[in-house]
Design a protein that fits this description.
The complex is a heterodimer of chains A (about 120) and B (about 110).
Chain A (H helix, E strand, L loop, with lengths): L3 E4 L2 E4 L5 E7 L4 E9 L6 E7 L5 E2 L8 E7 L2 E6 L8 E9 L7 E2 L3 E5 L1
Parallel strand pairs in A: 2-11
Antiparallel strand pairs in A: 1-3, 3-8, 4-5, 4-9, 5-6, 7-8, 9-10, 9-11
Chain B lengths: L8 E5 L4 E6 L7 E8 L6 E6 L4 E2 L4 E4 L5 E6 L8 E9 L14 E6 L1
Parallel strand pairs in B: 1-9
Antiparallel strand pairs in B: 2-7, 3-4, 3-8, 5-6, 6-7, 8-9
The chains are: A mainly beta (about 120), B mainly beta (about 110).
Chain lengths: ~120, ~110
């Protein structure tokens, strides 16, 4: 299957700082990217959907001013957690779907964020 | 909201077939059944999907009942590396850029030696 990468894989930051997570589709063009969050022993929760060149659509309850999503190109999307707090500590996973296949949605390996 | 019901956990002996059930009694005619799995601390991995016919690929087989209200994912010869959480998801083929995968709680499959 197609490959989606995320960087960094782990990040530790101080409370009040901002953290940027990158998501890249390595061998296909991703017209749509998704960002999920997963707390320990819980399922994935969809945060937002973004289409290249458009503003992201956020799920109910997700603060768009806190979780900034940019999908500026067909291979890159970024999630910025602004003014991070300990409760934002979580596993963030991106996913991408491209023009080559409607049926499959590929996931990145995830980014473990710890806010101290 | 997730539209599927799965058992919380299952065990399977290595080398035996693992049969993971999923109920989706409110599935609509245009909704597909997808299966993903997530190995600990990794992103989900696509396994298989189907509409109404049974499907098979190199990873697994998907059996969908005739009324489409339930399905079973079959791993024919489970290995220790198949230990993971398995998610059954229904997804409509709506506008290409607006449909999304919504995850339920999944089934935690433990394969033992």
């Amino acid at each position: 299957g197609a490959v989606v990468s995320q960087h960094p894989s782990r990040v530790i930051c101080k409370s009040g700082t901002s953290v940027k997570i990158e998501c890249r589709s390595l061998d296909f063009q991703a017209t749509t990217m998704f960002w999920y969050r997963q707390f320990p022993k819980k399922s994935l929760m969809l945060m937002a959907t973004s289409n290249e060149g458009s503003k992201a659509t956020y799920e109910q309850g997700v603060e768009k001013d806190k979780f900034l999503i940019n999908h500026a190109s067909l291979t890159l999307s970024t999630l910025t957690v602004t003014s991070a707090h300990p409760e934002d500590s979580s596993f963030y996973i991106c996913s991408a779907r491209g023009v080559m296949g409607y049926n499959e949605q590929f996931f990145g390996p995830g980014t473990r964020l710890t806010v101290l | 909201d997730a539209k599927t019901t799965q058992p919380t956990s299952m065990d399977c002996a290595e080398g035996r077939a693992a049969n993971l059930p999923c109920n989706h009694s409110t599935i609509s005619g245009n909704e597909y059944v997808y299966w993903y799995r997530q190995i600990h601390s990794q992103g989900p991995q696509y396994i298989i999907h189907g509409l109404k016919n049974n499907e098979t690929n190199e990873m697994a087989s998907l059996i969908i009942t005739e009324d489409r209200k339930s399905s079973t994912l079959i791993l024919p010869h489970a290995t220790l590396r198949d230990t993971a959480v398995y998610y059954c998801i229904v997804r409509a083929r709506e506008a290409y850029n607006t449909d999304k995968l919504i995850f339920g709680t999944g089934t935690r499959l433990q394969v033992f030696p």
